[in-house]
UniProtKB/TrEMBL annotation:
Descriptive protein name: Diketogulonate reductase-like aldo/keto reductase
Positions contributing to substrate binding: H108
Cross-referenced CDD domains: AKR_AKR1-5-like
InterPro entries: AKR, Aldo/ket_reductase_CS, NAD(P)_OxRdtase_dom_sf, NADP_OxRdtase_dom
GO molecular-function terms, A-Z: oxidoreductase activity, acting on the CH-OH group of donors, NAD or NADP as acceptor
Catalytic residues in the record: Y50 (proton donor)
Short name of any one Pfam family annotated for the protein: Aldo_ket_red
Residue(s) at site: Lowers pKa of active site Tyr: K75
Domain NADP-dependent oxidoreductase as annotated: residue spans: 17-266
Family membership: Belongs to the aldo/keto reductase family.
Length: 270
């Protein structure tokens, strides 16, 4: 890949493509993460809510790689808001993973998943202050958020000491989130793109297939490369080794003309 690393505003670097484990059951996570590590991934993304931290951690520990050479992300469950609650959830995550620190810890969402849009500003601020403590204590190398809109991030900027280092959001062809991207760029917040394939719904789009053919690439490779061209960090996931390998083989650049054509695609998920 032409860009191997992103750099957070505190100077810590993160590999420019991550292996996502959302929707990978715990019993499959060990083999999937092992396959990813075997094929060159050094950035693994999980969450307490995925219920697979235990086998994600075991795969990393069992693989012949030093802990410092793997970038590990996990997340505070969306429904957990509050200072002590955050410290407790973080301890649970470390225990599950069998690790003594995290590379990146995120607030999974600004509201509980069953109450999307609920105003949890006070709880998010309290959780963020707990994460600042964990960061200052050296338990986490970088801290960030996920699924946060501009107003959610602004509340942290107005009330806390540390600017989030990352915002992990759904980002794919047809959902470019330009205003949010511009805001994050202004504040030097790395944007991570989850669901870069729109959970697979993009892959049969005729324009994407046509452009992929031009680059002798798969539609998935073009979709993931698109995220990098937009200066976002993609987190593809798969449980199939062939696709795990392909998703990292992105040694091409998409022309401005083809990017413009991809930009015209409407959100396949409505």
């Amino acid at each position: 890949m032409s860009k191997e690393l992103f750099t957070f505003h505190n100077g810590v670097t993160i590999p420019s493509i991550g292996f996502g484990t959302w929707q990978i059951p715990n019993e499959e996570a060990y083999d999937s993460v092992t396959m990813a590590l075997k094929n060159g991934y050094t950035h693994i993304d999980t969450a307490l809510a995925y219920q697979n931290e235990e086998n994600v951690g075991k795969a990393i520990r069992d693989f012949d790689i030093a802990r410092k050479d793997v970038f590990v992300t996990s997340k505070l469950p969306a429904q957990i808001k509050g200072y002590q609650e955050t410290l407790d959830a973080f301890d649970e995550t470390l225990t599950n993973l069998g690790m003594d620190y995290l590379d990146l810890y995120l607030i999974h969402a600004p509201w509980p998943w069953n109450e999307i849009g609920k105003d949890c500003t006070e709880g998010n601020i309290a959780s963020w202050k707990a994460m600042e403590k964990l960061y200052n204590d050296g338990k986490i190398k970088t801290i960030g958020v996920s699924n946060f809109e501009i107003k959610d991030i602004q509340a942290l900027l107005d009330n806390c000491d540390i600017v989030p280092m990352a915002n992990q959001i759904p980002f794919y062809i047809g959902r470019d989130q330009k205003d949010l991207l511009d805001f994050c760029k202004k504040h030097d917040i790395v944007v991570e793109a989850y669901s870069p394939l729109a959970t697979g719904q993009l892959l049969d789009h005729p324009v994407l297939k046509e452009i992929a053919e031009k680059y002798d690439a798969t539609p998935a490779q073009v979709a993931i490369r698109y995220c990098l061209e937009k200066d976002t960090l993609p987190l593809p996931k798969s449980t199939h080794e062939k696709r795990i390998i392909e998703n990292r083989e992105l040694n091409f650049e998409i022309s401005a003309e083809d990017l413009a054509a991809l930009d015209k695609i409407e959100d396949v998920r409505g």
